[in-house]
Amino acid sequence: MTNPDPSRAPFAKWPPRPAMIAAALAILVVGIVAADYLRSVPPDVSATYVGRENCTACHQSETERFIGSHHDKAMDLATDETVLGDFEDATIEHDGMVSRMFRDGDKFMVHTDGPDGNMQDFEIKYVFGVHPLQQYMVEFDREPSMQAHEIGRLQVLRISWDAIDKKWFYLRPPDVDDKLLPDDPLHWTGIAQRWQTMCAVCHSTDLKTNFDPKKNVYHTTFSEIDVSCEACHGPGSLHIELANRKSLFWDRHLGYGLAKLKGDDPEPQLQTCAPCHSRRSELNDTFQAGEQFCNHYQLEVMRDATYHADGQIKDEVYVYGSFIQSRMYHQGIRCTDCHDPHSLELKHKGNETCTSCHQHAAGKYDVPSHHHHAVGTEGAKCVNCHMPHTTYMAIDKRRDHSLRVPRPDLSVKLGTPNACSSCHVEDQLKNLDEKTKQSLAGKEYADWLARAKAGNESIANAIAATDAWCDEACETWYGKDRKTPKHFAETIVAFRNGEPGSLADMLTAALSTPSGDSAVPNIARASMLSEVAQGLGQRMELTDAIVDTIRNAGDDPLVRASAIDVLASSGSSQTVSVLLEALRDDIILVRIAAAQAIVNRGIYGALSGNDKLVADRVIDSDLKESLEMSSDRSGSHLAWAMIEEQRGNYSQAITSYQTAIRVEPHMAGGRTNLAALLENLAPRQSESQAQVMVQRAKQLRAEELPLLARDSKLAPDNPSLQYRYGLALYLAGQMDAALESLNRAVELAPDVPEFIQARDLLKEKLDE
């Protein structure tokens, strides 16, 4: 028997010891790395705000660009370093009154008219903004028990500092030339100049208004006084925790633990900027960067008072509403393609802001053959043709971000503005009389348009002549290459003019999504639906398409919410079932729209018990929360009282009506509604209690009448207000005055049946 081959011995089947150790170490390392990667923050952990001081060490470059930016200077304490205005006994005169700005030691003071109309001294506690103007704020109603980090009611002075020309000026409300009385909401001590109501949430980080409607007192807080890092990136505690833990990876679910603003999808970034750069209402106060805009806000549609029919800015609507109309938006462009996100400055100077992306063949755009103006002049600047500005707050020039091609042809056809005429309308000054010419000195295009709309025929003719000249010039310059596609403004103007077939055209445009140059942006679609809903009057055209739009979860939430209003106005047999379905929608805005339609259209009372429970869940959560966001305004309590009244919760309705009156005692509405409710409830009470309720109702109506008289005088062209005032006068026994107001309501809105009926019934009564 031969000896076995040593190479085939059993121990020879195993690798050498070093290889075994290396393999074991490799397995161990892989296991450790895998375990490190798989380790994740618990899904129920919420991030908290930690302040910018925790960001600067690792993000020094971003911090350096941020310091001094408009976000950094959005708000601050009034100190020698932050106050720009002249407080060395400077004075300003307006409306026959002289206000004085002075120092009292370290304090900045103003001597001006107070809430009682008397001249008083007030301490400036905070500054607001930095350029082109700075405003100043005074604190009222500070309770002794308030903590140092809490803020009472802040009022923004109308006396403002022009940071460009270095002078004081009085910031008048638009279209108000008279002296503001102390009880006017527009007075600097009024609610329209209140920081918490109008400004705070967009000028501070993690702001909580904390208004107590029982005491009419604020306990407002914020994590940082201005627009800081976490306002845009979200609360940073998880990011810091992840950055400091000993790991090779960020969290596999949360990433950096901040809002994801840099991905392929531009929407998270755009919807992070949108809340403060749009005209919108709040649905709740839980928004954090990167979240769905329509789960926290409702964007204002293109109303006639705020936008021109073609979507160009008219009133102060900020940026988002115009930008989402643009071709740039639909091509995936986002804010940071043009603006540095930390300094907020443009990334390039002049036309390079545009040509850095529009790098077409040499000489295509930034040359006279395209813009037909001399190089280096205002007419050769891209923004002056494609982003014309309008001045707000007296000196703040803001550009329209719809980035549109000027359409003087639409101006000729529809009367909409165009960028060409905005510059060249001044060429018509020579054709105007001397008085008109002087009145337009220093005025911009928007002022010409406003005066023409107000009935100044000579100015209207000057604008029309300019539009025609510009249209002819464009035809000469561009000839057959000129693009004049059909625009949604043509449909909107036709509908507003009551042209035959325009209703069907509005619905067709709003419920379809055409492509190409004739595409209708979602905000325009929502606007069309909103206008249709206001004047539909039981017509049911395209009901199936409306229902499909509401049910299409992939469509724009603002469009779907507006479609709900149309359906609720249509009288369709599908209305109730579709609204109940919409109450379960994933988007809060859509749920609220469905709930509002149910309570506002009188549908709630006809629901079955189970369906009422479904509606109540949304009413008592989403809808109530959205109303509570403006609990310092009487309107929110008035709306809730009307809901509770419809649901039969009369004691809660009475409480809410009383709160509405207490919160804004100078506002009309609450007393009338409460009086009507008390009168309706009185017959169910004991005789003595009924007498008390009827007497209280009479007192409320007497208190309401002068408020309605004031409002009807301030808004003589508001038909609903004239109607309400007419009814109030009738109940007060002032029949002739009542008929005058009801006639006015019918003149302003001749198609509203209830206005006509009320007037005719009163006429019959007077003829008896």
Question: Can you tell me the residue ranges where pLDDT is under 50 for at least 5 consecutive residues?
Answer: none
Distance N terminus to C terminus? 142 Å
Share in helix: 40-55%
Apparent shape: globular
Major beta-sheet overview: 6 strands, antiparallel
Beta-strand fraction estimate: 5-15%
**How many DSSP E strands?**
16
Q: Taking Cα atoms only, what radius of gyration do you get, to the nearest Å?
A: 31 Å
Q: Count of DSSP helices?
A: 32
Mean pLDDT: 93
What is the element layout, followed by pairings?
Elements: H1 17-38, H2 60-66, E1 75-77, E2 90-94, E3 97-104, E4 107-113, E5 119-124, E6 126-128, E7 133-140, E8 153-156, E9 159-162, E10 167-170, H3 195-198, H4 200-203, E11 211-212, E12 217-218, H5 229-233, H6 237-244, H7 267-273, E13 280-282, E14 297-299, H8 320-323, H9 327-330, H10 352-355, H11 368-371, H12 382-386, E15 389-392, E16 396-399, H13 408-414, H14 419-424, H15 434-439, H16 445-453, H17 457-478, H18 488-496, H19 502-511, H20 522-534, H21 543-551, H22 557-570, H23 575-582, H24 588-600, H25 609-628, H26 634-646, H27 650-663, H28 670-681, H29 687-714, H30 719-731, H31 735-748, H32 753-767
Antiparallel strand pairs: 1-6, 2-3, 3-4, 4-5, 6-7, 7-8, 7-9, 9-10, 11-12, 13-14, 15-16
Helix pairs in contact: 13-17, 16-17, 18-19, 19-20, 20-22, 21-22, 22-24, 23-24, 24-25, 26-27, 27-28, 28-29, 29-30, 30-31, 31-32
